[in-house]
């Protein structure tokens, strides 16, 4: 079979590209996904997230031993389902700070990817329930809404932040990022709005779009310096698919460099060492891995103030019935609906810590669950200086990759992570939370010195599931793709997903990856970019007062 475009993964960016490219009825598009469909109801229930980090629809990968964390091996969940991470994440809709994208342009050579240039693509994707202003829009494919099942402890947490000097923020994606508040969520009608549901479900019957699940791409085929198709693994064996225009690699920050490497595209010395024939020596493939590392505080509650009590069988059944009948209750919660952004380093260019308030304990895989009701506060350092790698463990495409985030290789990252943990502990100690929190259980009051906190971090830290950067966009010898997303030195091959981000944004990465897909689609189609954003305060507008009908 021959197609105009072959897309190698149905994660957030892949779903966007499939939708936008197939808008042109004269082209044929094939979207390939190694995982299965999202038929399981857990994919669509907001609280289903709690099951997803525990092995549902993931590759089952882990890191190599982290030498700066006492040799710890961390679980490294990467989605294996249509919709990718957008089908299994906590549905937090965060875009990062304007400075993130301005630094892409100013310091990474990514002209045209500054904040004013990417904001219109965030807005084009968005169907926001509440906001319509310079920063938000509605009518786009991606449902964005506010929480519907927040608990009183959420408001108490926001008040506690104000008692500590952290202001309330009603919109982390607006003019200011700093503060605590409620997250916007990728939900519509109280169901998850994954990239699959938002971008594929409405157009799955397009005759020029083919979607194949359960199909693992093993190699990109090259003839000379041009990509001519892909090799896929099927139950009947290997199959070759041909492409007329381009192969678009959208397999994620781990999967995309893995696919390039197993196709012979990457550092020649590494490829030779694992027995992969070198087709194109490109040193930057698999380097520059960045991720957010998460530390957490868990406190025992004075009563059933979180959703831990729902774990009891009779309450689980009632919660399920409540959701089916009314789309409300615990199942309508993403379980991490409240949080915010603040400073571990007071001199940081923008907030460098992100908080997630978890309405329970043991919500995510590998996190301890208390016997009684608990509450969790995650803190993640957002500006890591540490850089890691993705490498092949063998020439066999089915072999798991060697994932080395190289956490805390830069001492500054360790210091800021521990400072973020300290701030999280202080928030839990504020008067506003006294009626809800009985005592801190993890790390626990006996963990106080720098060494004790370091030991706790080494034993308990986890990924925040935000890897980026392994096929870096930009200039210089280590760049993998140019500003047009084309792989350097090759024709007919582009990468368009979180792997091309030169630096990790200061946020969850689902929304930025969808933005990459939106902007990337215009680039691939040869369309002019959307006009850069202009803000009302720059236009010197005086907005008219609303008419009330009262004279």
The CA-CA distance between the termini, in Å, is 70 Å
Specify the overall morphology: globular
- List unreliable stretches of 5+ residues: 542-551
Which structural class best describes the helix and strand composition?
alpha/beta
Rounded average pLDDT: 94
Question: Tally the helices: what do you get?
Answer: 13
Word description of this protein:
With 551 residues, the protein is an alpha/beta fold. It is built from 13 helices and 22 strands. It has helices spanning 12-21, 49-52, 98-108, 115-125, 152-163, 195-200, 252-262, 268-274, 313-326, 411-428, 450-460, 510-525, 536-539; strands at 2-7, 29-32, 126-128, 142-144, 179-182, 187-188, 191-192, 209-212, 216-223, 226-234, 237-249, 265-266, 280-281, 293-301, 338-342, 353-358, 374-381, 389-391, 402-404, 437-442, 462-463, 493-495. Strands 1, 2, 8, 9, 10, 11 and 22 form a seven-stranded mixed β-sheet that branches. Strands 5, 14, 15, 16, 17, 20 and 21 form a seven-stranded antiparallel β-sheet that branches. It has a two-stranded parallel sheet with strand order 3-4.
């Amino acid at each position: 079979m021959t197609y105009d475009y072959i897309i190698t993964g149905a994660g957030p960016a892949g779903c966007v590209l499939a939708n936008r490219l197939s808008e042109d009825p004269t082209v044929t598009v094939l979207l390939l996904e190694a995982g299965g469909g999202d038929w399981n109801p857990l994919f669509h229930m907001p609280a289903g997230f709690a099951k997803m980090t525990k092995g549902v629809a993931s590759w089952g990968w882990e890191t190599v031993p982290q030498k700066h964390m006492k040799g710890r091996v961390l679980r490294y969940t990467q989605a294996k389902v249509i919709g990718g991470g957008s089908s299994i994440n906590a549905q937090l809709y965060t875009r990062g700070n304007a400075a993130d994208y301005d630094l892409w342009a100013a310091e990474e050579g990514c002209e045209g990817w500054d904040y004013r240039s990417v904001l219109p693509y965030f807005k084009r994707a968005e169907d926001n329930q509440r906001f319509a202003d310079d920063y938000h829009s509605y009518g786009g494919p991606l449902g964005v809404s506010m929480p519907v099942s927040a608990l009183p402890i959420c408001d108490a947490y926001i008040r506690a932040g104000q008692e500590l000097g952290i202001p309330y923020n009603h919109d982390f994606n607006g003019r200011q990022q700093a503060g605590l508040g409620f997250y916007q969520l990728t939900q519509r009608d109280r169901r998850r709005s994954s990239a699959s549901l938002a971008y594929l479900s409405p157009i799955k019957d397009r005759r020029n779009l083919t979607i194949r699940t359960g199909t693992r791409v093993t190699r990109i085929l090259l003839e000379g310096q041009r990509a001519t198709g892909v090799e896929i693994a099927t139950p009947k064996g290997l199959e070759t698919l041909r492409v007329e225009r381009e192969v678009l690699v959208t397999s994620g920050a781990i999967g995309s460099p893995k696919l390039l490497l197993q196709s012979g595209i990457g550092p020649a010395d590494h490829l030779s060492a694992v027995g992969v024939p070198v087709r194109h020596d490109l040193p930057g493939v698999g380097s520059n891995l960045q991720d957010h590392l998460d530390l957490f505080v868990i406190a025992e509650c004075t009563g059933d103030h979180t959703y831990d009590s729902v774990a009891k069988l009779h309450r689980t059944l009632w919660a399920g019935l409540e959701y089916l009948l009314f789309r409300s209750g615990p199942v309508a919660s993403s379980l991490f609906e409240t949080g915010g952004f603040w400073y571990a380093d007071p001199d940081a260019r923008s907030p460098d810590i992100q908080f997630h308030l978890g309405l329970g304990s043991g919500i995510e895989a590998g996190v301890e669950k208390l016997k009684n009701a608990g509450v969790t506060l995650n803190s993640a350092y957002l500006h890591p200086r540490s850089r890691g790698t993705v490498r092949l463990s063998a020439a066999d495409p089915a072999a798991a990759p060697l994932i080395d985030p190289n956490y805390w290789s830069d001492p500054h990252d360790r210091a800021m992570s521990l400072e973020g943990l300290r701030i999280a502990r202080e928030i839990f100690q504020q008067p506003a939370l006294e009626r809800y929190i009985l005592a801190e259980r993890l790390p626990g009051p006996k963990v106080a010195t720098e060494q004790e906190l370091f030991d706790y971090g080494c034993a308990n830290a986890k990924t925040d599931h935000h890897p980026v950067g392994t096929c870096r966009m930009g200039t210089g010898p280590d760049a993998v793709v140019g500003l047009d997303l084309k792989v350097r030195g090759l024709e007919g091959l582009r990468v368009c997903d979180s792997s091309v981000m030169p630096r990790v944004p200061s946020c969850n990465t689902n929304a930025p990856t969808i933005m990459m897909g939106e902007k990337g689609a215009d680039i691939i189609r040869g369309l002019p970019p959307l006009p850069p954003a202009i803000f009302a305060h720059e236009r010197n507008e005086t907005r008219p007062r609303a008419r009330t009908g009262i004279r």
